[in-house]
Amino acid sequence: MVRRRVAVIAANSTATLPAKAATTTIPIVFLVGEDPVRTGLVASLARPGSNLTGINLVSGELTAKRLELLIGLVPGIARVAVLVNPAGDLTEITLRDLELAARGMGVQINVLNAGTRREIDAAFATFADRRPDALFVANDVVFTSRRVQLANLAARHGIPMTSGTREISEAGGLMSYGSNIVDANFQLGAYVGRILKGARPADLPVMQVSKVELVINHQTATTLGLTIPDKLLALADEVIE
What pTM value is reported for the model? Predict the structure, then answer.
């Protein structure tokens, strides 16, 4: 893309750092799940100060809340399996935040690594021995793309599953809590449009996705024998029947 001298590069989280390394002149609009200041992408949220700006999904900040919501939906949770992609750019941060939250909530976590279809199958195969009470799926494009596989395996093993994307809940996952990806991509497209009209990335503040949604799959809850508490029903942005 740099050799072709494109007008602007739109990059998701895994592509952002390679894009930054490739050019200091072509505008880059990113969509990331972690604080871009902490990861060194920009100097500040208000004034990025370089050829990069974009959208922050604030995924990391929602990790503890997602675990709390899962515990509120599934009574008696003591052991939670955590499915992560070892090559994911958010994995280290997610595990750090989750381990801290789990200690505070009195929950034991067991980390399972998977980045391919076969590895996901293998991770679920361990449930027969370990029997976790629930599954926490980390935010990663690999898992979103394998959402049908995840939902089918969770149903087969009868395990409540939480994720950070509504697409997994729509496929059959029990619940999701996270930023609205459609809204985030709309904001990303709007920034690309402004840059194409002459705006400079350095002058466009990094936007944080304001729309965070809780989605609960009522049909899956019924299949698992779970009753959704009235408190969670009131908090839910959508209940899938």
Answer: 0.84
